[in-house]
Amino acid sequence: MITRTFAISYLFLFLIVISACSDGGHGLQFSVSAKHDSDSLALKAKIGAMLDSCNAAAGRADYDQYFSYFAADAVYIGTDATEVWSKPAFMQWAKPFFDREKAWDFHSLKRHIYLGKDAEIAWFDELLDAPFAKICRGSGVVVMRQNEWKIQQYVLSMTVPNQVGNAVTALKSPLEDSLLNNLKSAK
Question: Where does the pLDDT of residue 94 fall: very low under 50, low under 70, confident under 90, or very high at 90 and above?
Fold first, then answer.
């Protein structure tokens, strides 16, 4: 026969399990997670497609299409330490490359996309096949603007294998020493 103490203990355990599975009154955790995972995959696919389309537009030298993927207040950070541009400044710098009917032709080799909690912001990193420099890294932040993902910040970096790091530093030192000194003295 079930004793009153056993029944109360059973009810208490049941309430603990239910509260552990709840996500604040919005349903059970596993149901929300399954939906969230499905939504996350769809959002990541949309962001990945946008980034691929952006790269393809540059490969076709489609200036207007390429820059349509950037937010109006976007920032582009290039491989040179001095390259930090607003969208209008980046557009001006890039125009000659697009005018020659071949800008740059990057293809993503491996990409990671991370979503913010509100699904209005995400960030990514990717390894790129960049014929002028072999493997480059692109990383950045994308934001949802008027139901479209836009690049808010993009950072392009050249990768340097650890085995040749010292040699690369020796090559670039004469070019960056004065900039390094200026930046240190400006602090």
Answer: very high
Q: Which domain holds residue 98?
A: 28-165
Closest Cα to residue 106, out of 134, 86, 125, 141?
A: 134
Closest CA to 55 of 159, 123, 121, 138: 138
User: 16 lies in a domain?
Assistant: no
With H, G, I as helix, E, B as strand and everything else as coil, classify residue 73. strand
DSSP line for 96-116:
HHHHTT-----EEEEEEEEE-
Does residue 8 sit within a domain?
no
| pLDDT given at position 129 | 95
| pLDDT over threshold 90, residue 187 | no
Around Cβ 130, how many Cβ atoms within 10 Å? 21
75: domain CATH number?
3.10.450.50
Q: Against a cut of 0.85, is the pTM above it? A: no
